[in-house]
Write a structure and sequence with these properties.
The protein is an alpha/beta fold. The chain folds into two domains: 322 residues, ANL, N-terminal domain (Rossmann fold), CATH 3.40.50.12780; 103 residues, GMP Synthetase, Chain A, domain 3. The protein is 30% helix and 23% strand. Strands 4-3-5-6-7-8 form a six-stranded mixed β-sheet, sandwiched between helices. Strands 10-11-12-15 form a four-stranded antiparallel β-sheet. The chain has a four-stranded mixed β-sheet with strand order 20-19-18-21, with helices on both faces. β6, α8 and β7 form a beta-alpha-beta unit.
């Protein structure tokens, strides 16, 4: 029986057995963790429970950058795929995956797609890149293949190509960044495509949230649903975790796969917070051969939900991300994260593109400037309307600058970037 459907105490015992195996593997093979264990006089064999993890220091992204090769636990000739993820010190962080790691990725995505209702024989259109050293696109491909569904690798962008593919090959599921769905809908409406009666019945979103903390659809999710009555599923993943947490059809959080990862939620005091309280996601990977991680700080903020889901799974779930810890903004006395700002902008019909810039103010607080391009010039004062939209949603309004959309486009898509840049942090404490 799938471990996710076992009772919580059985899941915990199962994870603790895997944790002990993982610690022994690190002790035997990881130069980085061998040094950590010596420095802090930690005997890995004495770490026997999930609570015992608190005796071990955190691993941070800067550690991966500064000591990258020391995390590798196998000979380089065993690496069959290299991927990179963004680094806090500027340069990308490299991860090497063995054949076993790719099989683990396939298993993870098979479970995640299955959780979202994809089944053998379905057709999934991937609107994500599988190149540019991007782990996620490869993982999705492997997982769909493992599940026994069919894959259409279209890549990101180009609404015309996406719709041509949908009309030709009739996928029932598409996977993409949620805000791109609005571009697909716009293109369909402008070109007379009957998208509401297309073959697509399910959309799995990556990289952007679709729900608020109460699991209701956020502004972006509602706008998509009002236009296109398909089933929406949100996911959370990262290269460091080598795992994806997908919603089930009940849409009440991303299901964690206990055989692949241990998740802690940590407060400002670096100690676990009560279940249901927002904190930083800290992960310990299980079953990774190439570059396993112990207590890695993701920087992402969410809460853990432990009661049984309506789908029958007992494994805990994560709420939608509140934001990234380092990106927290203090705007006129209100604490918020960039996704809350994005949600307003993504759902303003006349906004074509934007970037949110945060910098220090003379008063020592955060100065937030939204620079945006317009799809068209509305008949009313766009700046005033936007400020009203912000105040109704997040109670405060940032400064707004309207610029040529071509100028914003260049900021959104710099050379070598795999993801659009929508947030720039120029505060001195982040330099």
């Amino acid at each position: 029986m799938d471990i996710e459907f076992q009772k919580p105490e059985e899941i915990k015992a199962f994870q603790e057995k895997l944790l002990q195996e993982n610690l022994q593997y690190l002790k035997d093979h990881s130069v980085y963790y061998q040094r950590m264990f010596r420095r802090y006089r930690i005997d890995p064999s004495r770490i026997r429970t999930i609570e015992d993890l608190q005796k071990i220091p955190f691993t941070e992204k800067k550690d991966l950058q500064l000591f990258n090769e020391e995390f590798l636990c196998c000979p380089k000739e065993k690496i069959v795929d290299y991927v990179t993820t963004s680094g806090t010190l500027g340069d990308p962080v490299t991860f090497g995956c063995t054949e076993k790691d790719l099989q683990r990725l396939a298993y993870n995505e098979k479970k995640s797609f299955s959780c979202a209702g994809v089944k053998p024989g379905d057709i999934v259109q991937l609107m994500t890149t599988i190149d540019k050293r991007f782990m996620a696109g490869l993982a999705y491909f492997l997982g769909i293949r493992e599940l026994g569904a069919s894959i259409i690798r279209v890549g990101n962008g180009i609404p015309e190509l996406q719709w041509d593919t949908i009309e030709r090959l009739k996928p029932d599921t598409i996977m993409c960044v949620p805000s791109f769905i609005l571009r697909l809908i716009q293109y369909a409406e402008e070109h007379g495509i009957d998208y509401r009666n297309s073959s697509v019945k399910r959309i799995i979103g990556i990289g952007e949230g679709l729900r608020d903390q109460d699991f209701q659809l956020n502004l972006l999710g509602r706008r998509i649903k009002e236009k296109w009555d398909v089933d929406l599923f949100a996911t959370y993943s990262s290269t460091e975790m080598g795992a994806t947490f997908s919603e089930c059809p009940y849409g009440c959080g991303g299901h964690v796969h206990p055989e692949l990862i241990i998740v802690e939620i940590i407060g400002e005091d670096n100690l676990p917070v009560p279940d249901g309280q927002v904190g930083e996601i800290v992960v310990t990977t299980l079953g990774v051969e190439g570059m396993p991680l112990l207590r890695f700080r993701t920087g992402d903020m969410a809460a853990k939900i432990t009661e049984q889901c309506q789908c029958g799974r007992y494994s805990y779930r994560l709420t939608p991300l509140v934001g990234r810890k380092n990106n927290m903004i203090k705007l006129k006395g209100t604490t918020l994260y960039p996704p809350a700002v994005n949600d307003v902008l993504d759902n303003t019909p006349y906004v074509e593109n934007y970037v949110v810039v945060v910098q220090d103010s003379d008063a020592g607080t955060d100065d937030v400037v939204v620079k945006l391009g317009l799809k068209y010039q509305p008949e009313f004062d766009a700046v005033k309307d936007l400020k009203d939209r912000f105040r109704s949603r997040i109670r405060v309004a940032p400064r707004i600058e309207i610029l040529p959309k071509e100028e914003i486009q260049r900021v959104n898509y710099p050379a070598k970037s795999r993801k659009p840049v929508k947030f720039i942090d120029n505060r001195s404490k982040h330099v």
